[in-house]
Amino acid sequence: MGYFLWQEAEQASNTLDASAVVRAVSAARRRNERVVIEAALSTTSGRDRDFLRAMVEDSGPSSTMNIGTRTRMRPNAVGNYRTRLIDAGLIESTGYGVVDFTIPGLREYLDSHPSKR
Fold it and tell me: Domain containing 99 — which CATH number?
């Protein structure tokens, strides 16, 4: 974000207005999606992404039981995908039977790109 704010400030003679900040935030978000999120998702399977998309339905941490219901996975499969996604650094355990996204912007990315598989 700082890099893009700096670029905007240089182009506007070291001053930033609201539209410059919006452009910088948008550029930083696009770069994060391309460099971090899409790279991280490139190694996931369809079922991994089903698991992640089931998490998007929650505004915060997700219950693995709810994920299983939404994906129609059996508990042992939910556990396997949970472990795979934790090992991949995409999610983390935030309590017993609860997981959340680890990468900033991942929830929003998946929500805004529902057809990317």
Answer: 1.10.10.10
CB atoms within 10 A of CB 114: 9
Helix (H, G, I), strand (E, B) or coil at 91: strand
Question: Which pLDDT does position 91 carry in this prediction?
Answer: 98
Same domain, 23 and 75: no
CA distance 109 to 33: 7
Name the residue range of residue 33's domain: 2-41
Torsion of CA 46, 52, 57, 62, to 10 degrees: 140
The pLDDT tens digits of the residues spanning 64-76 come to 999 999 999 999 9
| Residues 105 and 33 sit within 8 Å (Cβ to Cβ) | yes
Clarify whether residues 37 and 53 are in a common domain: no
Say what the pLDDT of residue 2 is: 86
Question: Mean pLDDT throughout 21-41?
Answer: 91
